[in-house]
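Re-run with default settings, no changes from the original entry. Doing this only to confirm the output is reproducible before filing.
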Amino acid sequence: MNKKSEKRELCSQCGKRGAICTIGSEPVCIQCEHVFQQSRYMQFAQNAAMMNLASQELDAVVGIGPPSPRIAIPPAPVPPIYFNSQSVNVSGSTVGNINLGVARDIQSHLQVLTESGNVALSETLAELTNAILNAEDVDENSKNELVEQIALVTEQAAAKPDDRKPGQVKAIVGAIKEGADAISSVSGAWSAAEPMIRTFFGI
């Protein structure tokens, strides 16, 4: 997979402009590259799990000697946060009035969530964040406010259960709902994220 240095072109998978790399010879965007990495990870994890099970069954049959080696299965890929088809990890701290430092904080929290096995919630929160950052029907100040609120939610989600503050999260979720519902390009992502967030925190 080679990073593209020339002018951004259309993604071969979703058709959006903003391809950042190639898979084989096909240009792909950040989202589609992540889907590809997810697919590779799932195939590897399934194969490794089956090989580990076979080793476990073999050990049970043999009954003596050291245990067979096991394949360590790493955490799933962390969903990317991006703005203007560029990862926030390679962008400056601000673009216009958008504070990408907060977006990077969100990605750090999502890494903790992913590594703890909460992959679906991590993916959904990333999709919500990306929808807000790349929305064209909202001003930058409103974007910053919503992203800062999501950062607080992801921080609480990544915290240890005993350290979480459900009351604080409930208030923040209410504020996000009010802001997201008013943005047509974000409301769909919020509708998907809201029940998962409320279930996770029990609010």
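The chain has a mean pLDDT of 86. The beta strands are 21-23, 26-28, 82-83, 86-87, 94-95, 98-99.
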